[in-house]
Task: structure prediction
Amino acid sequence: MVAGIIVTAIADELTIAHPGGDVTAGTAAVILGGPGRYLAGNAAFKWTVFAHWSWLRAVAIAVVAVTHQVVA
Result:
């Protein structure tokens, strides 16, 4: 989860530094990878602590992955 927050902060910095810039595959990976990592980490945490798998988080991870494939 912490890695997802850090990658999202990097994506924010990239977006603020170049608001009208072109989106490269690397930029898209950072912008979508941060939330994807956070969601995956959160799902793993919930599974480890509560033995509960959230299907909503699984759907959200899938949406982020599909969006990344479309953008990149």
DSSP finds three helices and no strands in the chain. The chain has one domain: 2-71. The longest helix spans residues 25-50.
